[in-house]
Sequence to fold (203 residues):
Amino acid sequence: MNSTLDFYHTHATRLAKQYDSLEFETVHRSWSTFWPKCGANVLDVGAGSGRDARWFAAQECSVVAVEPCNRLLQLAKKSSTQAICWIEDSLPYLQNVTSSSNHYDLILLSAVWMHLDSKQRAAAIKRLHELLAGNGTLIVTLRDGEFKDGRETFGVSVNELSLLCSGVGFEIYHVTTDEDSLNREDIRWQTVVIKKLGSLKEY
Fold:
């Protein structure tokens, strides 16, 4: 991911403005049923500009925001006055992230999965299972559409993600297909809601 990180570092200011031009409620409306409630422990992996982390904090959640690009992380910190724990770290291992005694009620990976190769995805799904609370929710968005600016990506599919999930004790609960929030005609998104095995009876 080095070349991709270099891209995000070089274009951090422009990208942060682009991300912040969209409202959380618009980008993430397809999984609104699972938005966290006050007091929830939330982990935002690939926090970018901090837009989503700020929204979670405004809902009075306890928020840990992880971003591998230092430049984006610094911009995100400057844009927030809320009590958010900012961490420079990356998948697949999230070595700097520790779970609370109750683990995380919600983990969000928005526009992240396509940057991981197959080996990284296998390791990442194991780590995410470790960090998620027993009745928690993992949200993963999948991008269908290539980058034309040099960022490295790998093909994604719900089927591949489902196989990885079944190997660690996750199961897919819900999938939606969404138009691109920036109205790019050649890009589509799928939002995958994932739960731990045995927890679906709660819904």
Summary: Helices lie at 2-10, 12-20, 24-27, 51-58, 70-78, 118-131, 158-166. The beta strands are 41-45, 62-66, 84-87, 104-109, 132-144, 170-179, 188-196.
